[in-house]
Amino acid sequence: MSETETISLRPRRIRVVCWASAAVLVVVFSLVATSLTGATGNGYGSFQRGDQIAMVGLGVFGALGFLLFTRPRVEADVRGVRVRNVIGSYELPWEVVRGVRFDRGAPWASLELHDDDLLPMVALQAADKERAVEGVRALRRLHQTHQARLAQGAAGR
After folding, report:
1. In what order do the strands lie in the sheet with 73-76?
2. In the β-sheet with 118-125, what is the strand arrangement from edge to edge?
């Protein structure tokens, strides 16, 4: 591992699903909005232009909600790891990381911290199969490089 190597990992499958779902949601809400015309039934109300705009707006907000799930990312270098999940971001030096875990049956990988906490890394999802496994291996190599430097520094004193 070189001194300047940076690993950047993002999920692939969930991004494709979310972008497609967001597009479909906007189209469906737009089609519903165009069909909102005339009377609301036997009552006195009728659909107006504002109702149509509101329906398209709801579709856009729903699509933005889907796109939140494309936010996860993991970036790492020799100094530490930065994890951005759907909600929340963390920047950790390698000193606080005990290991990188990807347990069998787990939906995503996680960082095991020295305080016995687990930090999920939603960007490394089991649905991405081999791509996620390669990402975990790369993170483990960076972590092992850091551990070796610590051991080398301790032995050199």
Report:
1. 7-9, 73-76, 80-84, 89-93
2. 97-101, 108-113, 118-125
Where would I find the H helices in 36-129?
49-67
Listed residue (84, 68, 83, 57) closest to 18, CA to CA: 68
73-155: which CATH architecture? Roll (2.30)
Q: How far apart are CA 53 and CA 51, in angstroms?
A: 5
Give the global pTM: 0.77
Q: Residue 53: which residues within 8 A CB-CB, separation 6 or more? A: 33
Domain ranges of the chain: 13-69, 73-155
- Helices of type H across the chain: 13-35, 49-67, 130-155
Q: pLDDT for 94-126, tens place per residue?
A: 999 999 999 999 999 999 999 999 999 999 999
